[in-house]
Amino acid sequence: MDFLLSGQLLFAALVLGSVYAVIALGLNLVYGTMRLLNIAHGEIVMVGAYAAFWGFSLLGLSPLVALPVVGVLTGAIGLFLYGTLFRAQLAANKPVAQLEASSLLLFFGVSIVMQNLASLAFTATPRAYQHLDTVYQIGGVAMTGNRIATLVVSVAILVAVLLFLNRSIYGLAVKALIQHRDAARVVGINVDRVQTVSILAGFGIAGIAGALVSMAEQISPFMGFPFTIASFVVIIMGGLGNIVGGIMAGFLLAFIEIYAVALTSANFRSILIYGIFVGILVLRPQGLLGKARRS
Amino acid sequence: MLKKLTYSLAAAAVMALPFTAQAAEPLKVGYSIANTGLFSKAAPSQMTAYDLWAEQVNAAGGLDVAGEKRPVELVWYDDESDPAKSAQIYEKLINDDKVDLLLAPWGTPHHLNVAGVVEQNGFPLVGNTAASVAIREVQPGNIWFPTSAIPDRIGPALTDMLKEQGVKSVGILANVLPFSQENLQFLVPALKAAGIEVKLNESYPPDIKDMTPLLTQLKAANVDAVLALTYPSDAFLYMGQAKELGISAPYQFLLIGPTIAAFKDAFGPVADGVITVGHWAESQTDWPRAKPFFDAYVAKYGAAPDYLDSALAYMSCEILQQAVAKAGLDHDKLREAISTMTFDTINGPVRFDGVENAITPTAFLQIQDGAMQIVWPKDIATAPIAKR
Predict the structure, then answer these.
(1) φ and ψ of B198, to 5 deg
(2) Is B345 in contact with B136 (CB distance < 8 Å)?
(3) pLDDT, tens digit, for every residue of A9-56?
(4) Which of B233, B244, B297, B298 to mutate to test the interface with A (most CBs of A within 10 A)?
(5) Which domains are delineated in chain B?
(6) Which residues contact A120 (CB under 8 A, 6 or more apart)?
(7) The dihedral formed by the CA atoms of B162, B165, B170 and B173, expressed in degrees to the nearest 10
(8) Contacts of A125 in chain B (CB under 8 A)
(9) A220 close contact with B: CB closer than 8 A
(10) Bridge partners, B126 (sequence order)
(11) CA B33 – CA A141 distance, rounded (Å)
(12) CB pairs under 8 A between A and B
């Protein structure tokens, strides 16, 4: 049992948790401010992974150096989708249920299109590359370079976003929009601009997360779906649109995944994760930190 | 303007007529493939082999149909990784498109679904990427399976190899997906019968994202051999995390994954010594067609073929080609030819007994200095097994 206390498991849980938290953060920003259910979120992660792969393979660019470029690229995809598909709908101030439903369908289409475009452009053959794969022994814990980098960058993003939301005027406006769209408009917030900021941030962060996971996973046009599912589990568990709740849920999920498997058996991994997920929703339908909402 | 264009097109068509009349009518060769969906990662390794084969055949003047050379035209549809859709597509290929020959879809479930269609239509189909004991339950006659990587053979063969290497204990990790579990089912009894201790036997779900807890236990078990019954994505996960944790067992076997070119790209020298299932390698000089296939593939695609799927897909084309050269397109004659002939393939001679390949043995590959070598069984080995 003493291996439960080993730093190795803690390190694994932190790395996995930070990845879950960051990927879900992008989804949560987009949902929170606009009530758009982005089923194509995993595909944005996929685009980020490919961008990092090609940057590394063709230009010899470290994915860590390429992170800002990747973020801008996927952010631009977000802006394009916002401009073409959602701006008008959001401006028309449609009911939340209608926005959720139509965005779900639209993003479903977007996800299929992106998968197949990637498959046409890059072929479906899986890709991979080696970067920062030296293993370091730190305090008796073995850590691969790219996993340390993933942890550090992810935590930096989480901290930066939290600071932005709490300290900057734009961040406060984003929070206001998450809390109450109509009231935010009434007090003079430029809703369109805030939405632009959050879609840029949401899609940009997803792309950056993709670049990070590309260092350790194989890259293929269809790699996105599991990330979409994991992000939805995380943000629903944390409370839809609740940024802090989402981050907590990301780490909680990872700790369940690592420690529950260590205590029981890997066979129970998915049963435990989804069991706890359902359990939380039964006890707190609004999620861990979500406030009960009346529609 | 448009009228003028139509006239000139018509004129061009008339002028072209004498030439087209001379060339033989193209031969339609149909198949369905998982171009999108769950298996789309795996299917390209098969499609690339088909394309290469068709290109080579056409460059050589066409496919020899009992003496007459006809150009090959591939007709394919996306089955979206859905076995039921695959069966519908083969119906369509046979009855609507009226294809002359068929090639196989990707994967065991698709093969099993299509088997009924070809049986009903009496249309011979040489399969390739299906490996399950279930293929023996398919009615023999119109479908054949060239693979020798069948779970009830893999378990005992792997055990023989480990025993010969003096392995005393193993740790098993198995994906819960069917091919892994089918292998597990035959592997454990074989190990027990051979007196090899199974110190750890854990299954895990396919969507596992981190193996640290499992691998910590595996490391503590201190086994001579790790037998990881993986699918591709968890093969990558295992390799990366086993490296992080310093799993140093001298024998590390991964079921599916290491034959994909990206595996070597991801791990480089760390992948050296990894053993996997596979019965083909370009370095086997007893098979004179092996190296030319490898070279042509690399020249066309810039990467090595998948040692299992690309090789099997190409073999199935070779078998069909040689059978058609002898028997032509008549289904009865073709069926007879495939059932009785011995074929000269990139994987050496192949002959069918019922639905199964009666010659190619179940074999294992090992990555050595970045290249794939056959290490078991000894009569087709291209290199001795190296400890990791």
Answers:
(1) -95, 100
(2) no
(3) 999 999 999 999 999 999 999 999 999 999 999 999 999 999 999 999
(4) B244
(5) 25-147+287-357 (3.40.50.2300), 151-277+363-380 (3.40.50.2300)
(6) none
(7) -50
(8) 41, 44-45, 261-262, 303
(9) yes
(10) B144
(11) 45
(12) 117
Give this prediction's pTM. Answer: 0.88
Contact A267 B203 (CB under 8 A): yes
Rounded Cα distance between B287 and A28, Å, is 57
Interface test with A, best of B40, B180, B207, B210 (most A CBs within 10 A): B210
Which structure tokens are listed for A117? 């475009």
Cβ of A257 within 8 Å of Cβ of B209? The answer is yes
Q: CB of A192 within 8 Å of any CB in chain B?
A: no
Confidence label for B14 from pLDDT (cuts 50, 70 and 90): very low
ipTM of the complex: 0.90
Q: Which amino acid is at B385?
A: I
The domains located in chain A, with CATH, are 2-283 (1.10.3470)
Segment B240-276, tens digit of pLDDT: 999 999 999 999 999 999 998 899 999 999 999 999 9
Q: Collapsing DSSP states into helix, strand and coil, what is residue B198?
A: strand
With residue A102 as reference, give the H or E element that holds it: helix A96-122
How far out from the chain centre does Cα B85 lie? Answer: 21
| Burial bucket for residue A112 (CB in 10 Å: 0-12, 13-18, 19+) | middle
Q: Do A258 and B210 touch (CB under 8 A)?
A: yes
According to DSSP, residue B145 is labeled B
3-state helix, strand, coil in chain B (%, to 5): 45, 20, 35
| Beta pairing, strands B371-376 & B125-126 | unpaired
Number of Cβ within 10 Å of residue A57's Cβ equals: 12
Tokens of residue B63, six digits: 């496919």
